[in-house]
Amino acid sequence: MTAEFIPQIKDIMPLKKLYYNRARIGRDLSPNDPVKKIADEIYKEGLKLAKGILYHHTFKINDIPQELIPAKFSGCRSITMFASTIGSEITERVEYYLNTEKILQGTLLDSWGSESLEMLNDSFDEILREKYGQGTIRFSPGYGDIPVSRNELFLQLLKISGVTSNKETGILNPIKSTTCMIGWHT
Amino acid sequence: MNRNDFKNLLSRRVLVLDGAYGTEFFKMGLGDLPGEILNLKHPDAVYSLQKSYVESGSDILLTNTFSANSRKLKALGYETEMEKINIKAVEIARKASNSNTLVFGDISSTGEFPVPAGLSDFDECVAIYRDQARVLAGAGVDGFIVETMSDIKELKAALLGIREITQELPLIVHMTFDETARSVTGTPPEAFAALFNDLDCDVIGINCSLGPEQTLEIIRKISPYTTKHLSVEPNAGKPVFDGITLTYKETPEDFALFAEDFINSGCSIIGGCCGTTPDHIKLLSHFAHRVKPSIRPEKVPQIVTSRTSWAEIDPFLIIGERINPAGRQRFQKSIYEGDFKTALEEAKSQQRQHAQVLDINLGIEKLVPPEQFVNIINELDRNASLPLSLDIQTPSLMELAARNGSGRMILNSARVTEKNLPRRIGMLKKYGGMLVLLAMGKEIPETPEGRFNKIMEGIALCESEGISRDRILADPLVMSFGAGKDPAVTLETIRLLTEEGIKTTCGLSNLSFGMPDRSYLNGSFLVKAVDRGLKSAIMNPGDDFVMNSLHGALSLDGHQMTHPDMEVSENELVRFLLEGNSEKLLEAVKTYETDNDPVYISQNILGGAMEEIGILYGEGKIYLPHLLLASETSAPVFEYLNSQMTGSVISKGKILLATVEGDVHDIGKRIIGTVLKTGGFEVFDLGKDVSSRTILEEAREIKPDIIGLSAMMTTTVSRVQEVTTAIHSAGLSPMIICGGASMTKELAGKFGADGYAPNASTVVELCLELLKKQTGQEKSGLDNK
Known about the structure:
The complex is a heterodimer. Chain A is α+β, with helices and mostly antiparallel strands. In chain A, 39% of the residues lie in helices and 17% in strands. Chain A has a single domain (3-184), classed as 3-Layer(aba) Sandwich (NADH Oxidase). Chain A is built from 5 helices and 6 strands. In chain A, the strands form 2 sheets. A 4-stranded antiparallel β-sheet of chain A has the order 1-2-3-6, with helices on both faces. In chain A, strands 4-5 form a two-stranded antiparallel ribbon. Chain A starts with a strand and ends with a strand. Chain B folds into 3 domains: 3-288, TIM Barrel, CATH 3.20.20.330; 303-316 and 386-556, TIM Barrel; 572-775, Rossmann fold (3-Layer(aba) Sandwich). In chain B, 45% of the residues lie in helices and 14% in strands. In chain B, strand 5, helix 9 (189-198) and strand 6 form a beta-alpha-beta unit. In chain B, helix 28 packs across helix 29 (719-729). The chains are: A alpha+beta, B alpha/beta. Chains A and B meet through helix 2 of A and helix 10, helix 11, helix 12 and helix 13 of B.
């Protein structure tokens, strides 16, 4: 049975340096620099719009279709599979900005959304490892030997509707969503 | 934890302080009691708050002893409980801690600034801090923090007091700045950073008054001028009152967002001040513990400072030589008698002539009473002087002056002898500053190499004692050309020292002593010396030829000197007011008497000049000490004008002032009173901690036009409403205005006040507007009494 992890606000707050890096903003901007002011405002807006949720289940290795198991996970006895999202509002707002010629705001919010989603994954990752030990790296379809198109199968396994995928491309919906897995040897 | 371990820890990880106490106690319904008294009466409440901070991730817990010094406790009626309160606070904090938590003794203002910003004796302040530190150290704190300090000299007193008790425990020192990036008493962050970078503390920082965004701007001004770790405790924004409770608008998320900015700007310690809660600290620590501290610089630019100004050594530092009674008998006599009028005039005129530092030489020191060395330092400080160079030969007198100064001064000078130099080094370590090191021991070496070697010998001794060579201004000794001394020796010494990276200064006027055409000789020598790398000179800034020669020489090297613009106004009266020159002000005012009556002069001419002062202050062109000085300067002249009016004294209106019940903060209200008096109002000050009943009774008696209420603390701010209700219920009709650190325009409105004055610069205008409204017409400032 897939469980839901509802993050606390801290679990979706990325470090500014990561957000700034992704948005290609220098770290040493003066507090009065207008770009920094806008970037920080966007951070706050992102926090208000984000609706973080993470669906997860830990499967025994034999219960997972072979085509979803990366070669790197060889020897694992179980795998935690999870799909995470910060919702569609961020993406809608990004589109609004881009459509109204507020390109800076749009790209900043998009960057923030990506880092916020990473932060959500990191937070859950930390919880898992505290519970199960070291485990493998965190892996997502689209990397290594698992094509992104397998997202559909991944989501079917979790039996969730909060995150869906395009059957052909594997692109997730909402856009700011990811699928991840961590393998456990013990 | 010893100081080295503490500093090493700060290099490795960011530590999180706790958050607010006062606002949290208020939420618990304990706002009626002074916070420190809760240690004895409600220890469980203190414990529970501190425990929640520890659980939220605080690495350093502050004892609940912010106002637990003997002077503050005396004002609250708890003086005899000082030891008990402090000991109990440490006990509670320890109990709330976990094994890794550090407990720091929390110390703040005594409530009365030392002279000259206040009336309190400096050494008495030191003793008060020493006493509190003794108790806290005895109770086992891991270190100290002195926070929310508005007066740089009081902070210096605190540091000296604590260090009299222990040199082993870490010490964090904080000042508080407002939106104009100045402390209430006019100190810029750069001056604070430079002075305390030298003094015996481990971390410097800021707290209170501002939210994180504005605090960050101040931190970025401090950071370049100190090698020390930085710490910060912003407020959770500005307070908002909903009619029942006072809250701060900055959410934990908004607040925590600044953690990385602070760390990138050099902070290794972050916490929260007014309005922050355990939730703020929890989120803050979530960020702070994931980021490594920035590396602090090993070297910083050298600046010299006074309370209100600072000057860089680069590209050239002009030290005005005119406060020196040599050859001026009347000046010397006035100094013996403690009359510093000439000295202050020289200070102001040299400032106008673009000196950046004032050399203080009181002549034959044996004849000058020691207290005058303190008095002149305080007088210059009170007059918002430039940074000082203490040209004092007797070590004990130099120490007196250094101890009582507010800035990072130049100690002028030391010879390289076993007796002379170590004593100056001791003063540098204790009081900070830069040292003029003479290129001589018992004798003056004849050759450039001999002088160079002597300086290097002195620098080696300084460095072995922890004084870096950056803090040395080497004096290659300018000798009298007329006495047959070869200036080439001095010039070559400058070149050798410059090559070694040593900054140099000199007493320029010695060159031409007893010679004709002194300006030409001095100016020409200065050009040659600058060419060889001279960085500073003690000289006469009033000598145009010399000054122009200097500027020419610097320009050819691609440097342009900038000067603080002292000519802030074309109005002569404004200039005299800012110079503190009552006599010239009176003289100038008298010239208007032939064509105008005293009422007109008082209201429009002198009153107009004072209004301009208020505007300049509001625009940030002058600072609070200037404003107060102008008020004091104008007082005798207003009195004179009043005495010239036939049978009546002019008053624009009666104003009753009081700090509300439970609040013992007095300074801001006194400042307001001074400004109002010189703005032509009749002021009745009821003092601090005044009950609404007393205010009501006095209002019935005095019948003021306006009542001004001050509330500094978040826990007492709602008393303003109590007073307005009492006044209105009694059917009295004075207008009510309020101000204070925790007050806002919105709150004032909600409390039923008619006006809000955010600072002293706006209060006169506010009162005039209210009176206009009250009478329905302009009163033309006339109320005969």
